[in-house]
Design brief:
heterodimer, A: about 375 residues, alpha+beta, Rossmann fold, OB fold (Dihydrolipoamide Acetyltransferase, E2P), 2 domains, six-stranded mixed sheet, five-stranded antiparallel sheet, B: about 270 residues, mainly alpha, MetI-like fold, about 0% strand, binds adenosine-5'-diphosphate, binds magnesium ion
């Protein structure tokens, strides 16, 4: 299913003074999707939202909403609403008045305002709290008020700026599900900003991974996690063991033999490498298996440094004979004696062929 | 050692109070004793203020029957209300402007506010007098209004500006985002939030105007007398008990306005 474009950024640049926050930024938002901007703090995520909301003006390039340019359109005239990182609830108004604010601005009739406000409060499960002041509510409740205040206007695009990061872990998980549910229920396009990769992976239809004002990769969560475009995306999308290797032979169009500190390994990749080229292997901890050295062949040899019991998984740090340390994370089952490797024990680490991520070697950034 | 400050008969008060505390007591006595004497004097039946000769409200009664004083009081209240109101409107708009917009010379304008705040009354009085004469303005209510608005303005602007600095700028952005134009956002969000500071600014301006003698002396004309000047001409002939009563009333008004203003400014900081 391809959805039509609802908004787009074309070659947008934005500077703050001499500091470049976005350079030549391009992005197409699709109707009804939940797109996440994922990236470290300061990479320009908030700037993207503010540009679309009209709270900042691009230095160059153009932004379109429903096919019309937004150049010269002030924030109040854009059919876009924002859930601010600080929530920005009006402290002098009640919860219901906060939610009704946008409808008042549209000069709707008071009966309709009352009905839609009540419906929005019900949607975020705050019915009955309409008369309270925002500061009387808990953080999670304030977050819902901010959400209701934006959603009640039925915007074309809803912008959410790290709106869950102030909540504690349990509440955040709950709100993630609720947000996703609201998004499906309303069909509104959401642009969600976060620096939390689990949040991004679990909620999004598509993720744009950003670094210093550019998109490094745009795609569905699985692509981002399993087929990262580069080492930055690989490391930002999940826990990574990064091993450097050199190509020694090309055995098939998608198969290479590489040497990792003396150990030959067969790896699969769609990328083209020359013999002698340097590359990096990225191995996800949960893809790795640990075996007793005596009982196994192949893989990488090393010894156990540390074991950490984490309930669902058993994490092991292993010092490879080749030098680097790697971390494994195995699902814990009581009846699997092979999982029990005490520190100091010689082991081998293996993985399902083809599950390694092969990336060109990049100079240090 | 407990109760070092306890008064012990035969040793004298000074001996019973530790030196640090004594110092504090003396300072407060120096500041408040004259006022206490003045207020007591206003209720003292003795005409010359020597010794307590019983409680009376006579002096207040004679104030109420003194046509000149009543006129001056009405004038003072009118000037104070007008000046406080104009200074509040102009000062609030100025504060919103200084807060919302970044323009060249903004820092300089802020600096100028502090300069007017700190500049000696006499300098302001003389320069305004020169200005008013140059403009051929008749000295009286109008010139007093302008002059008092002038010295109240920085108080309002700085008070309101400080309040605006204190709240999240995202609130205005949220209002814009929800469909409010620039002016509507100011009216619906900025002004209601700044209201305690605006009210405090008005109250402080009112007391400043009511108490002012120096500027008023220069910029008013012979036909428009205000209370502080009336008091001045009364005390030139010796301090009469009516003066005590009048000054006590002024003090009461000022004190309650200042307390109210401070309460407004601090009430939502828990
Ligand atoms: N108003 C501003 N003035 C100056 N620099 C800013 C301003 N807003 C953001 N920046 C800078 O622009 C960059 C991108 O900011 P932002 O979009 O807020 O990043 P993110 O939301 O990804 O953390 C950061 O380096 C930040 O310091
Ligand atoms: Mg941000």
């Amino acid at each position: 299913m391809t959805r039509s474009t609802i908004a787009s950024f074309r070659a947008v640049s934005k500077h703050y003074g001499s500091h470049c926050a976005l350079r030549d930024f391009n992005l197409e938002l699709r109707e009804g999707e939940l797109l996440t901007l994922l990236g470290p703090s300061g990479c320009g995520k908030t700037t993207v939202l503010r540009l679309l909301a009209g709270l900042e003006i691009p230095d160059s390039g153009e932004i379109f909403l429903d096919g019309r340019t937004l150049a010269g359109v002030p924030p109040e005239a854009r059919n876009v609403n924002t859930v601010f990182q600080s929530y920005a609830l009006f402290p002098h108004l009640s919860v219901a008045e906060n939610v009704a604010f946008g409808l008042r601005m549209k000069k709707l009739g008071s009966a309709e305002i009352r009905a839609r406000t009540a419906e929005a409060l019900r949607m975020v499960r705050l019915d009955g709290l309409g008369g309270h002041r925002p500061l009387q509510l808990s953080g999670g409740q304030q977050q819902r008020v901010a959400l209701a205040r934006a959603l009640v206007n039925r915007p074309r695009v809803l912008l959410l700026d790290e709106c869950l990061s102030a909540l504690d872990y349990q509440l955040r998980r709950e709100m993630q599900l609720e947000l996703k549910g609201l998004q499906r229920q309303t069909g509104i396009t959401f642009v969600f900003v976060t620096h939390d990769r689990e949040e991004a992976l679990s909620m999004s239809d598509r993720i744009a991974v950003m670094r210093t004002g550019r998109i490094e990769q745009l795609g569905p969560p699985r692509d981002i996690y399993e087929r990262p475009a580069n080492l930055f995306v690989a490391q930002f999308a999940g826990e990574s063991n990064v091993l450097e290797a050199t190509v020694t032979a090309i055995t098939a169009p998608d198969s290479l033999i590489v040497e990792l500190a003396g150990t030959p390994l067969t790896v699969r990749t769609d990328r083209r490498f020359r013999v002698g080229a340097r590359l990096v292997l990225v191995l996800r901890p949960e893809d790795l298996h640990v075996h007793d050295d005596a009982a196994a062949e192949g893989g990488l040899a090393g010894h156990v440094l540390e074991r950490t019991y984490r309930g669902v998984t058993l994490d092991t740090v292993i010092a490879l004979d080749a030098g680097p340390r790697i971390k494994t994370s195995e699902f814990f089952r009581e009846d699997t004696p092979a999982l029990d490797h005490p520190p100091g024990q010689r082991v081998r680490v293996s993985w399902t062929p083809g599950w390694e991520i092969v990336l060109p070697h990049e100079p240090e950034t | 050692m407990k109760n070092t400050a306890r008064f012990e008969p035969g040793k004298g008060i000074a001996a019973a109070i530790p030196p640090g505390r004594l110092y504090g007591v003396l300072i407060y006595a120096f500041l408040y004793l004259p006022m206490a004497v003045l207020i007591l004097g206003s209720f003292n039946a003795s005409k010359y203020g020597i010794g307590w000769q019983g409680f009376t409200l006579d002096w207040y009664e004679s104030l109420a029957n003194d046509a000149e004083i009543l006129t001056a009081a009405r004038n003072s209240l009118a000037v104070a209300a007008l000046s406080a109101s104009l200074a509040t409107v102009v000062g609030t708009l100025g504060a919103v402007g200084l807060h919302r917009y970044r323009f060249r010379g903004r820092k300089f304008l802020m600096g100028l506010l502090f300069v007017t705040l700190m500049s000696p009354d006499i300098v302001m009085a003389v320069s305004l007098l020169v200005l008013f004469i140059g403009l051929h303005l008749e000295l009286g209510l109008f010139t007093l209004w302008l002059a008092h608005t002038g010295f109240c303005l920085p108080f309002v602007t700085l008070t309101v500006h400080a309040r605006l600095q204190g709240f999240d700028n995202a609130l205005v952005e949220a209002a814009r985002d929800l469909g409010a134009g620039e002016w509507t956002a100011i009216r619906r969000v900025v002004l209601p939030l700044a209201l305690p500071a605006i009210a405090a600014g008005w109250l402080m301006s009112f007391t400043l105007s009511l108490d002012d003698a120096v500027v008023s002396f220069f910029v008013t004309g012979p036909d428009f007398e205000v209370l502080p000047l009336r008091i001045y001409s009364m005390v030139r002939l010796g301090v009469k008990p009516e003066v005590n009563a009048l000054a006590s009333l002024l003090f009461a008004v000022s004190l309650s306005f200042v307390v109210l203003a401070q309460w407004l400014l601090h009430k939502d900081r828990h």
